[in-house]
Amino acid sequence: MSHSMQPPHDTAPQHGAYVPPPQHMRNGLGTAALVLGIIGAITGWIPFIFFLGGGLGLLALILGLVGRGRSKRGEASNKGVATAGAVLGLVAMVAATVGMVASFKAVDEGLKEFDKATSSTGTKAPTTDTGTGTDSGDTSKSKNKKKSKAKGASGGGGSSDVLAAGETTTYKDDLKITVSAAKKFSPSEYAIGHTVGNKAYQVTVTVENAGDKKFESALLTTDARAGDDGVTAEQIFDDKVGAGFTGTILPGKKATVQYAFDAPAAAKNLTLEVSPGFLHDPVLWELAL
To answer: Which helix (H) or strand (E) segment is 201 a member of?
Structure first.
């Protein structure tokens, strides 16, 4: 019996050139630089948040340069993206500089406008309102005293002198405030702010808007101190006094409010401070008790 002969199989391994696995590209820094650069370039121009754009721009520049380095070493494949991120980072930093200048300029102009508004509402020389009157005494001496005060109060800012009862202070926007003489007041049993053993005094405050703009009278506040020691004179709230000013005083109109204050029995004087609002200087009146 004959057997067919088959050629033996070649079992030797075939040896070829080694192909390394593909290297993972590290493109994250370039992409991050581009995103941060875009955001920084947008926010850098905006006043008051320029610092955000500047910070993001600096970070984008650093990440973009590092990303370009990776591309040169073959570790990344987005050299163009990294370059764009670095360039946008520079743009963001320039924009932040412009935004910073614009912000400082806006603040400076705002302060100048506030200064202008404040100086325009300073007080003029106080005048005497003959309608309310003052305490009895030597008329000639009283007039001379008022003239002296009026002369000393003229200037750009608020009056440094203390006015007497019945005198009127006029602001540069033609807002006029007059405080009457203090007279005794009898609080009811339901009054708030009155201490047993103390005396109560009523004061009339009149506000006249002689200017050409509305005045929000709700901003007006009053504070009082009594006696030589200057103890706080508590404001009394009763059914007839203590409500304070409310609403708007139109040009050419007046508003009058009655206030009452609690003072020690031995106090001989009451110092009343009236502040019309944030843009007006407070003024003091010295009232005899």
So the answer is: strand 199-209
Q: What is the pTM of this model?
A: 0.53
CA distance 51 to 95: 10
List alpha helices for the chain, DSSP H. 28-43, 50-72, 79-119, 139-153
Identify the bridge partners of residue 260 per DSSP, sorted by sequence position.
202
Cα angle: 121, vertex 122, 127; to 5 degrees: 110
Residue 186 is which amino acid?
A: S
Q: Which residues of the chain have pLDDT under 70?
A: 1-23, 116-160
Burial call 219-242: b when 16+ CB within 10 Å, e when fewer: ebebebbbbeeeeebbbbbbeebb
CA angle 122, 123, 127 (to 5 degrees): 170
CA separation, residue 233 to residues 28, 226, 257 (Å): 71, 6, 18
Let me know the angle formed at the C-alpha of 195 by 189 and 199, rounded to the nearest 5 degrees: 90
Name the one residue in this structure whose structure tokens are 């991120």. 85
What is the SS3 assignment for 158? Answer: coil
Q: Are 283 and 208 in contact (CB under 8 A)?
A: no
